[in-house]
Specification:
By secondary structure, this protein is of the alpha+beta class. The chain folds into two domains: 73 residues, Sandwich (HSP40/DNAj peptide-binding domain); 59 residues, Alpha-Beta Plaits (2-Layer Sandwich). Helices cover 15% and strands 37% of the residues. It contains two helices and eleven strands. The strands form three sheets. A four-stranded mixed beta sheet has the order 2-6-7-3, with no helix packed on it. It has a four-stranded antiparallel beta sheet with strand order 9-10-8-11, covered by helices on one side. A hairpin with a 3-residue loop joins strand 6 and strand 7. The longest helix has 13 residues. The relative contact order is 0.19.
Length: 151
């Protein structure tokens, strides 16, 4: 049996928690792409069924009663953050990542994508400055599913 949730109540960033205990439910960032989610909690399983384009974000409050506030905690992703020094370098690395079907997020002048050793080696070979870090993503990596052929 699970408790059905159709909307979030707010976000911990500005939610009035007061003296209530806060329970954080860890989820991978890929959960942010889903409309239907089942999560175990201290009060039993929670079944989220979000409407339309609504998706979970880090800190979203799912339950708030007199004793507790239950919220989502997006687990940090292991990512590479590339810092191209020029437009030409950005185009070169974006093209190489696109050819490998690697989903990316632009963060200002940086390019963020999931860590993989061959991708770190690509950045070294291309002379692109980068760092490896753990980041809580504000939006998830999304794979393009457009059909196409190579040839």
């Amino acid at each position: 049996m699970f408790r059905r949730i159709e909307a979030v109540l707010g976000n911990l960033h500005d939610f009035p928690v007061g003296t209530r205990a806060v329970e954080r439910l860890p989820v991978p960032s890929s959960t942010m792409t889903r409309r239907l989610v089942r999560l175990p909690s201290s009060i039993g399983d929670l079944g989220l069924q979000l409407d339309g384009e609504a998706r979970l974000r880090d800190g979203d409050v799912l339950i708030a009663d007199e004793q507790r506030v239950i919220a989502v905690e997006v687990v940090p992703d292991d990512v590479l953050v590339a810092y191209p020094d020029s437009i030409a370098q950005a185009v070169e690395i974006a093209h190489a990542l696109g050819n490998r079907h690697v989903p990316v997020i632009r963060d200002g002048d940086a390019i963020v994508f999931g860590y993989a050793e061959p991708l770190a080696e690509l950045l070294v070979r291309s002379g692109v400055r980068y760092e490896r870090s753990a980041r809580v993503l504000e939006r998830p990596f999304v794979y393009a599913h457009a059909p196409h052929v190579h040839g």
